[in-house]
């Protein structure tokens, strides 16, 4: 279900009891709403990783090139896969910054060399080590930045009416500018945050998360791969 910017503005003005007032302009209110959307985005990401916003993009390495530009809407990284042996995807672990030169001489980008391939986000780039020596497909899983609304017809994906957080937060900012009492709105926002934190943690209600073996991202037997 989606809710438009026009609907968010209307409901925020109603919540702030400023329906007939232009003390807060539409432009200001749009900024308040986008700020609240970004906060909601972070709340959902922090509550349960990236499952609400996870996206992926694929690319191909270039021999002799270690750095690759991240997507324009990149926010946080969830993981990197590389496709070796023609069809099989393998999970690539990160390297610590103080290990940035450790793997540079550790073999080539082949199936036998997969155990030594590492990545790290550095600035606006994804750095791979050892430096690729061939053209290999990679897949980047990431959380994008929060979307910004500008036109009244732009919409927010309203997960289980979590837009209430956006509406109340924007109303608080409107009342704060007016130097009015915001305690009731602050209490309501606190209730909404508690609801989101309790309800948003497990999107797969049928199965609980398993503890991850960080030493077994790929199968122990290197020639047998997990599902792509």
Can you describe what's shown?
It is a single chain. Strands 2-8-4-5 form a 4-stranded antiparallel β-sheet, with no helix packed on it. The chain has a 3-stranded antiparallel β-sheet with strand order 3-7-6, with no helix packed on it. The two termini are 31 Å apart. Strand 4 and strand 5 (88-92) form a beta hairpin. The relative contact order is 0.22. It has helices at residues 5-15, 26-48, 163-177, 183-199; strands spanning 2-4, 55-60, 67-69, 74-84, 88-92, 118-122, 125-129, 137-144, 155-157. It has 228 residues and is α+β, with helices and mostly antiparallel strands.
Q: Number of folding domains? A: 2
Give me the Rg, rounded: 23 Å
Uncertain residue segments = 210-216, 220-228
Largest sheet: 4 strands, antiparallel
> How many helices in DSSP terms?
4
Portion of residues in helices?
25-40%
Quaternary structure classification? single chain
Spatial ordering of strands, largest sheet:
2-8-4-5
Average of pLDDT: 87
Structural class: alpha+beta
- Distance, first to last CA: 31 Å
Which outline best applies?
A: elongated
N-to-C series of helices and strands? EHHEEEEEEEEHH
Beta content comes to 15-25%
* Tally of DSSP β-strands: 9
């Amino acid at each position: 279900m989606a809710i438009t910017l026009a609907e968010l503005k209307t409901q925020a003005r109603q919540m702030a009891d400023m329906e007939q007032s232009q003390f807060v302009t539409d432009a200001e209110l749009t900024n308040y709403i986008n700020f609240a959307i970004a906060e909601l985005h972070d709340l959902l990401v922090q509550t349960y990783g990236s499952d609400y916003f996870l996206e992926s993009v694929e690319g191909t390495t270039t021999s002799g090139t270690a750095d690759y530009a991240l997507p324009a809407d990149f926010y946080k990284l969830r993981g990197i896969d590389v496709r070796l042996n023609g069809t099989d995807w393998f999970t690539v672990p990160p390297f610590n910054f103080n290990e940035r030169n450790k793997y540079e001489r550790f073999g080539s980008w082949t199936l036998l060399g997969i155990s030594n391939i590492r990545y790290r986000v550095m600035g606006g780039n994804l750095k791979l080590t050892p430096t690729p020596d061939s053209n290999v497909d990679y897949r980047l899983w990431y959380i994008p930045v929060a979307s910004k609304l500008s036109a009244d017809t732009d919409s927010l994906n309203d997960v289980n009416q979590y837009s209430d957080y956006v509406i109340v937060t924007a109303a608080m900012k409107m009342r704060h500018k007016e130097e009015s009492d915001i305690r009731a709105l602050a209490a309501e926002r606190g209730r909404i945050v508690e609801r989101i934190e309790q309800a948003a943690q497990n999107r797969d209600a049928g199965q609980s998360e398993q503890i991850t073996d960080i030493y077994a991202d790929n199968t122990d037997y290197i020639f047998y791969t997990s599902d792509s």
